[in-house]
Amino acid sequence: MSASAGSAHSPFSAVLFDCDGVLVDSETITIQLLAEMLRELGWEISYEETVRTFIGRALVDEWEVILAHTGFRITDAWIHEFHVRRDDALRVSVQPVAGVEAMIAAVAERFGDRIALASGADRVKIEMQLDVTGLGRWFGDRVFSGMEQPRSKPAPDVYLAAAAALGVDPASALVVEDTLAGVTAGIAAGATVFGFSPDSPVRTDPGMLRGAGASIVFSDMSELPGLINEWAPRPAA
């Protein structure tokens, strides 16, 4: 189906998805490993604090908080080791988020090729996860990495790049995100953001997602096509 036909009668011109925690159930695996490696540096950080501090953010940008707690300035070699260990674990265990295949099929039926993936992660990780889960077939070359932009999330760069590549106004796009950094990035791009907060130990509290600017927060991927169909923004006061 063509993009124009797929998005007919919709308030949105395109749908831009985050990857980790939205399309693939990877955050638990990644956070567990990160907490383990930070403890190896001497930071007795809990799983919950690791979630609060790092989820949705590029690790390379968080060197100051790690330095403050460990006295160690993370190096390219340390980050590389994290990436290798992370990708090895994900390659074995990562799964699609429950209901995501049927959701993408319904959204793609409506929007055609005006759907894209816009992640803050590095491209190697993104493409490996798409390959392992089989989700890559829905996105083709419409996959964007925040690590390839001047700034990663919470800056809007990756969403602006995705919208530009699709030829749509970011203000007419829908962003689907599960973290504060991601919601902040989508709002900064001018998009409408729907927050995803499933029943998961790594989920961000729905109230926090709304506080960051999410217009709707939902907990099950099967809800998203209906929410898109029903969405009508409130008129300006």
TrEMBL record:
- What SUPFAM superfamilies does the annotation carry? HAD-like (SSF56784)
Key word Ribonucleoprotein present in the record?
Answer: no
Keyword list, A-Z: Magnesium, Metal-binding
Disulfide bond recorded as keyword: no
Q: Which cofactor does it need?
A: Mg(2+)
Regarding protein family, the annotation reads:
Belongs to the HAD-like hydrolase superfamily. CbbY/CbbZ/Gph/YieH family.
- Classification via NCBIfam families: HAD-SF-IA-v3 (TIGR01509)
* Record's protein name: HAD family phosphatase
Organism encoding this protein: Leucobacter manosquensis
